[in-house]
Amino acid sequence: ARAAVHPSVANPNRPYEAFDALLDQVCREPTLPDTMRMNDRSAIVPREEWFTYPLDVFDNLTFIGTQTAGVWAISSSEGIIIVDASFHYSSEELVLGVLNFGLDPNDIKYIVVTHAHDDRYWGAKALQDTYPDARVAMSAADWDVVAQDNSPAEFKPRRDMVITDGQAITLGDVTVTLYITPGHTPGTVSVIIDGLTNEKSVASDDERHVASIWGGTDPS
Questions:
Q1: By the 8 A CB rule, do 165 and 187 touch?
Q2: CA angle, residues 67, 21, 115, in degrees to nearest 5
Q3: Torsion sign over Cα 87, 88, 94, 95
Q4: How far apart are the first and last CA of the chain?
Q5: What single-letter DSSP state applies at residue 59?
Q6: What was the pLDDT predicted at 35?
C-alpha cells in the first residue's frame, strides 16, 4: 500500500501524487480515545469561514458544503440521502441549499454519517430535530464513540439506524452501498453511489455513473 501511494520518482510539479499522509490517516489501527475529538468546537464559526456555494457533480449528486468538511446530497425519485452533516450551526442552511436545485429537504430519508467526529455528526442532530422522519445512520462502533466522547449532549443525535458492512440503501434508481472501513475512527464508513446520471451538464452523456466517498477523506 505504501508503494502504491507514493511514486518511485517524485515529480516536484505534481506533489499531490504522493498520498502518504492519506495512508497514515486512514490505514492505521483504530484506538480509543485517540480517534475522538477531545477539544471543544461548539463555538459558532462565522459564516464566511465555512460557507461555499453548492454545485451539482452529477444530476443527482450535489456538493452542498462546506469549505472544510464535505456534505453531499444524493437525490432520487423516492427521496434524498444526505452524507455527513457538518456542525450544528451550518447544517440547516446547507440542507436548505438544495432548494436551489429543485429539491425539497422534507424529502430527506437518510442522513449517513461517515465517521464519528463533531464536523460530521453534530449537524445530524440538528437535522434529526428538524426532519424527524429522516433516519440517522452510523456504524455500531461509531455510535459507541458518540456515546463516549466529550461532545455536549445537545449535539449528539439519538441513536438510530446501525450501518452494517455491505448494507445497501436503494431509493428510486439510486443505490448507496455502505462499507465499514475502520481507521479514521473505529467504525468509519465508505460509500459507493450507483445510478448517477450526467444528462444536464455541458459535457452531458446518457450513461449511468458510479461515485465513491472514501470515509475519513475530505474532497471538500
A1: no
A2: 55
A3: positive
A4: 24
A5: T
A6: 57
Grid coordinates given for 128: 434529526
Parallel/antiparallel/unpaired status of strands 161-163 and 167-171: unpaired
Burial class (CB in 10 A: 0-12, 13-18, 19+), 15: exposed
Q: Contact at 8 Å (CB) between 110 and 161?
A: yes
> Cell digits for 114?
461517515
- CA dist 107 and 74 (Å) reads 11
Whether residue 14 contacts residue 7, with contact meaning beta carbons closer than 8 Å, is answered with no
**φ and ψ at 10, to 5 degrees?**
-70, 140
pTM of the model: 0.86
Neighbour count for residue 214 (Cβ, 10 Å) = 16
The C-alpha atoms of residue 43 and residue 188 are separated, in whole angstroms, by 25
The confidence band for 11, taking pLDDT boundaries of 50, 70 and 90, is confident
